[in-house]
Amino acid sequence: MTGVDWHPAKETLTLVAQRYQTALAAYLQSGEAELLAEAYETARLALEAGVPLPDFGLMHFAGLRDSLLPSGSSGACLERAEDFFLEGVAVYDMALRGYVSGMAALRKEIAERRRVEEELRDITFELARQRDELDREVRKRTNEIRLRAQELESKNRQLVQANQDQSNFTYALSHDLKTPINTLYCFLGVLLEDFQADLKPEAQELITDLIGTAQRMRQLVDDVLDYSNVVGHQFTPERVDLQQMVQQILKDMDALAASAQAEIHVGALPAVMGSPFQIRVLLANLLSNALTYGSEGPRAEVRIVCVPAETAGKVRLSVSDSGPGIPEDMQDRIFELFKRLHRYEQCPGSGIGLALCKRVAEAHGTVLQVVSQAGKGAAFSVDLDLEEKQDE
Question: Which GO terms describe its molecular function (predicted)?
Answer without folding.
Answer: phosphorelay response regulator activity; phosphorelay sensor kinase activity; protein kinase activator activity
